[in-house]
Amino acid sequence: MHRPLVITEDRDLLDDLVRIAAAAGAQLDVAHVPAHARPFWNLAPLVVVGGDLADALAATAPPPRDRVLLVAREADDPESWRRCVAVGAQAVVTLPAEERRLVDEFADAMEPEPRAGTVLCVIGGRGGVGASVLASCLALRASHDRLRTLLVDADPLSGGIDALLGHEDAAGARWGDLVAREGRVGSAALQAALPAFGDLSVLSFHRGEVHPTPAQAMRSVLEAGHRGFDVVVVDLPRHLDPAAAEALGRASSTFLVTAADVRGVLAATQVLAEARRHTSDVRAVIRPGVLDDDVVARSLGIPAAGHLPDQPRLTATLNRGELPRLGPRTVLGALCTILLRDALPAG
């Protein structure tokens, strides 16, 4: 993998840039004269030009490219903007004021090719309808299809979605570990930190004292998931906190699991009203009951995405720490296949 390129002869500036790059987990290629930068110019994922060599670099007429930054020490210096245009840079970054931005730029440069993962949310219309089970099965089905999948537990009171999967003792980071660190989360670092089972990575909560997840932490995780995964499935609480609202706002589709009875529909209507404040694409997944599926869908005013039949052996399977069979010929596997096919981009 190619490294970011720094072009400067200023030793103090170079020391700062090496330190900032290290904070992002990046190593640098360095050119002390513009001619030495030529072999790296088109290959580097990011080029950072010191103001001291900007005019000399512009004189070599480097070919246009994306992701070139000019680093300056003084804000709003007209000479910096002139040099920025001369070298074909997209922006001027002022140090030390914009050091955090430069850390993020270096971290982005070290990311693998982004995957543009699709975020799907699952929420229960009332307690006990199986929303967490559906979220887990969707994630498992996607990973079985060789899609790199991230399953995110957004309900701190759920007992941990890793326990539902029978992997509560798996080594790896939980929400508390991520919230403790500030700033951006890299997709590669997130994958390396989380418990993983084949193509499925799982982010759950620690057992014990409950701490709410800040919206910024959810935002960072979902941005990393968008860059590094094909599918991100978020298991939401029914009472939406800021983190859950953040996830809903980023979801391409949300599945509302609804019981087909009067109380189930009334409860789901209230959950739906809250969800619609943050997202527009909500689809019903209907559990069996006394009402027909089309009656439930019409009552809610949203399309029915699928029917989730009772699975008498599912609870016993999960309690044994085993995962359900999700082959395309099983009822649950077929439902997940349909939901993913309809929610994910074609191809």
UniProtKB/TrEMBL annotation:
<dbReference type="InterPro" id="IPR022521">
    <property type="entry name" value="Rv3660c"/>
</dbReference>
<dbReference type="InterPro" id="IPR059050">
    <property type="entry name" value="Rv3660c_N"/>
</dbReference>
<dbReference type="InterPro" id="IPR027417">
    <property type="entry name" value="P-loop_NTPase"/>
</dbReference>
<dbReference type="InterPro" id="IPR017746">
    <property type="entry name" value="Cellulose_synthase_operon_BcsQ"/>
</dbReference>
<dbReference type="Pfam" id="PF26563">
    <property type="entry name" value="Rv3660c_N"/>
</dbReference>
<dbReference type="Pfam" id="PF06564">
    <property type="entry name" value="CBP_BcsQ"/>
</dbReference>
<protein>
    <submittedName>
        <fullName>Septum site-determining protein Ssd</fullName>
    </submittedName>
</protein>
<dbReference type="InterPro" id="IPR050625">
    <property type="entry name" value="ParA/MinD_ATPase"/>
</dbReference>
<feature type="domain" description="Rv3660c-like CheY-like N-terminal">
    <location>
        <begin position="7"/>
        <end position="115"/>
    </location>
</feature>
